[in-house]
Amino acid sequence: MQAIKRFTEQAINKLREEIQDTGGNEVFALGYMDDANKIAKIEIAARGNVNSVLALQDRLDDIFDDPEAESASPDVLIHNHPSGFLTPSDPDMNIASRAAQGGVGSFIVDNMVTSVYVVAEPAKRRKSQKLDPEAITAALEEGGAIARRLPVFETRKSQLDLMHLAIKAFNDDSIAAAEAGTGVGKSFAYLLPALSYAMANDERIVISTATITLQQQLYEKDIPLVAAGLNSKLKVVLVKGRGNYLCLRRMEEVLKEPSLDEEENENLRSIVLWAETSKTGDRADLSFMPMEGLWSRICSEADSCMGMRCPFRERCFMLAMRREAADARILVVNHHLLFADLAARMEGAGYDSTVVLPPYNRVIIDEAHTIEEAATSFFSDEFSRFGIYRNLSRLYRKRRAQKTGLILKLMGMLPGNAAFAEDDKNKIEDIIENIRQAVDDLDEGAVELCGREGVFRLAPQKDDYIRTGLSPQFISLRKQINILGGIIRDMLEKIPEAENKKIDTAQEGTVWEVKAILRRLDTIGNVCSSFLEYKENPGKVMWIEKRQGSSDKHSKDPWAEFTVSPLDVAPVLKEALFAPNKTVICVSATLTIGGRGEASFSYWKNRSGLALVQDREILSGIFPSPFPYKSKVLLAVPSDAPLPTEGGFSAFVDNAAADLAESAGGSALILFTSYTALRSAYELAKPRLQQAGIRVLKQGDDDRSRLLANFLSDESSVLFATDSFWEGVDAPGDTLRLVILCRLPFRTPSDPVFEARCEHLEAEGGNAFMDLSLPEAVMKFKQGFGRLMRRSSDHGVVAVLDGRLLKKRYGQTFLNSLPETRTCFGDFKAISRATEEFLFP
Asked: In the structure, what pLDDT confidence band is assigned to residue 832 with cuts at 50, 70 and 90?
């Protein structure tokens, strides 16, 4: 075949010159195709002699193992035969065969590159279809396909500008960071380009968000509306983590266990009845809340899943969901699930096969301001005595004279199991009791070390406490876990393989369950090792938190949770999220610090890993809210508010919050940075507000969703809340007319991960306050402020009761981060009067 049919003229000349430069010897080259499927780019990888060339094995391994990697993704392997005879040798055929499995072709050429022998055809490079910005944005302009379907519509310049940024990110294979103020309509701004691109190019796009609320809104409301406007038949699937789905095999195993109490039995019977008719097996579809301990024993788990060897595979809810996802072009997921998938791919699973999710290379991250926190949580390991208890109980438990558990089932599967007499069971019982005692001793010492602060982070200056109060207990617990693990592994090695039909499917399920628990115990042992070797792990934070009561219905005593967290997730996010994906669009209402013409993405880019990306185009834009803050919002700050470090601050906040809420007649969200402060203000305000006919709600008295529902249904209610309510609360209209931010949301100095990151910044020559504390607090402050205005017709007051806002120089940074509003910076009497006049003119 003539080479000109498969190469561009420039590529032929390049390859010919390289061969001539070697004196006519063999060369090994990588070829890259253009949109016309011709080799347009040549990269020389090796040079040889007249008979052979070294096909660099490491380079080939990179190509074959990760064909999606941008730096190792040639379309064709090329080498020349100086003899002019282009028939492939056996080694040529072996390499070509391996390359073909990854879609990479193999060509042999003569020295003048006039002829080519195609050993294996490359996968054709399909030209991606670019999006037409004008055609897409027209859908959200007056009379457009989407605009016509909205009950109330107004053209928003910020929304159209954000959409142009998203379109460019898809067309140019770019990364984009966008701050879109409340009311911009960011969901439509990225959904229209995403669905349009998926339709035009038959590509899968993953949309990830931090909250279930937004997941549901996207899946049930926004995406169907956009799809209808585009006349799209794209399949969209909402994907949740395994723990949300019932495992029929595990449920069947639990049904056979005789040791459930009556409450658990009743709960289980209800789940069994539901499972007979459920189409999804999703816990959210239950009409009641299953018991947490029971659900953990019957839900789907990756490490106990038997996959295609499961006897219930034809009815498996998890496999059904995965089949749906594999056939979908839009996947709506949460950040934790996305990180689970990215981590597995980065650790060797690759980017061209199904792992947790089907393969993809375009991602939209909504609520992107949360990704550092979400990644930190995902890449942390933790355990508590209750978690160990649960796993040990599944292995072996004794109730009165009855002994049950997976280990006993395992013993019954061993050849000549009669040899396992009561003494063996007693030995197992002793070892498990030793583990319980070891974790109890560790827990007791850890709770004591946490003291009144409730947190203890391992650090060199605390080494004496660690050596005496923790290390011996960690060593003991790890030792006992290793002893039990050794016994279990010895038993597993003696179990006949299922392939040999020596054990039935139920017995095989037991083996899988035992192996899963063994892996969890190994993880706990590894956490113990991390704590013991904390000085050798500068990239990790080891810490203990004292918790109270709720993990075990039978215990009111405090207990300890042991956690190992990464110090810096930026490099991981860069490698796992930004590097391998062609398009990554990050959007949030709060990604910048500063404002009024000086807003910067620097803080978020540094924390998220985007600042580490040097070889990609990074688009960014700030898209301001179209809401009329200047006429509809009053920012009120009392000039006589004490500083938090001054005496009387708590009393001032308690009284001020009650006075303002009463003046507003309810419709107030009062946000705190600690539950102690919340409780103090609530106890003072409750009798006063109730006497005024105002309903008083407090975080902790009910679960978050029901608490919000009660608040939204009663315009005269007041909700006292803390951390999680600073964002994700959508209360339009007169439901919410007053937001009180009682204190600037600086992270507590006792937060162990935050403390470690501050110390690391200082050690690197940075300023922990300016580089970390202040930017993080400003972003959360913006989230709290954003609770008030949810529709353009909303109006109300945001009152900030922290004296630092006006008295500290950095207070201006907080103020500059907000949109321009009406303001009242006077004494408390003045702002109380201004609040009432603004709300009731």
From this structure: very high
Same-domain check for residues 615 and 633: no
Query: What pLDDT score was predicted for residue 346?
Result: 82
In single-letter form, the type of residue at position 372 comes to E
Per-residue confidence (pLDDT) for residue 56, from 0 to 100: 53
Q: Looking at the structure, do residues 23 and 54 belong to the same domain, yes or no?
A: yes
User: Residue 417: pLDDT above 70?
Assistant: no
Rounded to an integer, what distance in angstroms lies between the CA atom of residue 719 and that of residue 711? 7
Cα–Cα distance, 216 to 210 (Å, whole number): 11
**Final residue belonging to a domain, choices 64, 88, 120:** 120
Both 802 and 683 in one domain: the answer is: yes
Check: CB of residue 177 under 8 Å from CB of residue 605.
yes
C-alpha distances in Å from residue 635, one per residue of 215, 788, 798, 821: 32, 11, 5, 6
Domain boundary, last residue among 120, 153, 184: 120
Q: Considering the domain boundaries, does residue 181 fall inside one?
A: yes
Nearest to 388 by CA among 348, 347, 440: 440
Please count the other Cβ atoms lying within 10 Å of the Cβ belonging to residue 277. Answer: 6
The answer to whether residues 621 and 686 belong to one domain is: no
Rg (alpha carbons) of the chain, rounded to whole number: 31
**Domain tally for the chain?**
5
Q: Is 574 exposed, middle or buried (0-12, 13-18, 19+ CB in 10 A)?
A: middle
Per-residue pLDDT, 308: 74
Calculate the CA 777 to chain-centre distance: 21
3-class secondary structure, 733: helix
Which regions of 535-659 does DSSP assign to beta strands (E)?
A: 540-548, 558-566, 583-588, 618-623, 633-636
Mean pLDDT of 367-396: 91
164 or 411: which carries more pLDDT confidence?
A: 164
Q: Are residues 695 and 827 in the same domain?
A: yes
Mean pLDDT confidence for 633-648:
94
Structural domain includes residue 280: yes
- Name every residue whose Cβ is closer than 8 Å to that of residue 220 and which is 6 or more positions away in sequence: none
Give the rounded percent of residues in the chain with a pLDDT score beyond 70. Answer: 93
8 A C-beta contact, residue 548 and residue 542: no
Helix (H) or strand (E) run with residue 236 in it:
strand 236-238
Tens of pLDDT, residue by residue over 242-291, are 888 999 988 988 887 766 677 888 889 899 999 999 999 998 888 888 88
What is d(CA 520, CA 719) in angstroms, rounded to the nearest whole number?
A: 40
Distance between CA atoms of residues 430 and 477, nearest Å: 14
Burial 137-166 (b: 16+ CB within 10 A, else e): bbbbbeebbbbeeeeeeeebebbbbbbbbb
* Residue of 224, 242, 58 whose CA lies nearest to 149: 224
Structural domain for 458, as ranges? 401-566
**All residues at 6 or more sequence positions from 254 whose CB lies less than 8 Å from its CB, including other chains:** 260, 268, 294, 297, 298
Helix axes 471-494, 406-413, angle to 10 degrees: 30
Ranked by mean pLDDT, the top range of 204-208, 246-250, 723-727 is 204-208
Short-list 606, 576, 580, CA closest to 593:
606
Asked whether residue 283 is domain-assigned, the answer is yes
Say yes or no: 199 and 277 in one domain.
Answer: no
What number is the average pLDDT over the span 186-200?
95
Token digits of residue 387:
């978690």
Walk across the sheet containing 738-741 and list its strands: 695-698, 717-721, 668-671, 738-741, 796-800, 633-636, 822-824
**How many residues are there in the chain?**
841
Q: State whether 667 and 526 are in the same domain.
A: no
One-letter identity of residue 477: L
Q: For residue 346, give the CATH number of its domain.
A: 3.40.50.300
Concatenating the DSSP letter of every residue in 184-196 gives S-HHHHHHHHHHH
Q: What's the confidence (pLDDT) of residue 257?
A: 72
Spatial distance between the Cα atoms of 286 and 270, rounded to a whole number of angstroms: 9
If phi over 0 gives left and psi between -120 and 50 gives alpha, with beta otherwise, what is residue 421? beta
What H or E segment, with its residue span, contains residue 668?
Answer: strand 668-671
Say if CB 99 and CB 74 are below 8 A apart. Answer: no
Model pLDDT, residue 729: 83
